Amino acid sequence: MLHDSMVTKVEAPPAAIVAGDEPRWFLTRHATLVSAPHRWRPRFLSRLRTDLVAKSIFFHGKAGRWRTLAMVVKDGSMATVLYRLAHALGRARLGLLAAVVYKVNAMLTGAVIGRRAEIGPGLVILHSHGIVINSSVRAGRNLVLGNNVTIGTEKGKTPVIGDNVYVGTGAVIIGGIRVGNRARIGANAVVNKDVPDGGTAVGVPARVIKVRSLEESLAEPEAA
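The chain above was modelled as a monomer; its predicted structure follows.
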């Protein structure tokens, strides 16, 4: 459970989440910064549980115990599990094992996710096939990815992804750009310029066609 002292800025959660039966820490879903890790249980398990809860809420609007457990067998979840495991092994300085798990992930799920990539809690992979994420990528909380998404480096520079970002099928995000909080990237978009908070980017090259306020973002249903 996240304590209040661990969250430096929290936006109001949607009413549907407040009314549900989710764990209290998930009500910080729109937090823009979590300043301390869990100290009382392994980070791998904590992050993975958060991922599964986020996926349950994405699909069902709530996350009871059994709904959350059912997400383990949902398409894309195995890629999340293996990425989290490889990342945890790397942090534990078990580089060889981390490399093996990374390769297993690529072979079994079709997702190539760098084991050093830093992706915040609440990662939701809808379909894992064709996902490529560079090891130097940094992403915030509640990142949602469709299949065939590429987030990569250009000229040695890597994107920084904010919180609560949705990336549609086939999208490409490259270079030293920032994708803001609550942004939406359309299917097959090629993003090589900054996207502001609440922005929706589509096209090749991508252009921002709409910028939503925080209130508008919370009022809209989740992208699917």
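The CA atoms of residues 31 and 209 lie 25 Å apart.
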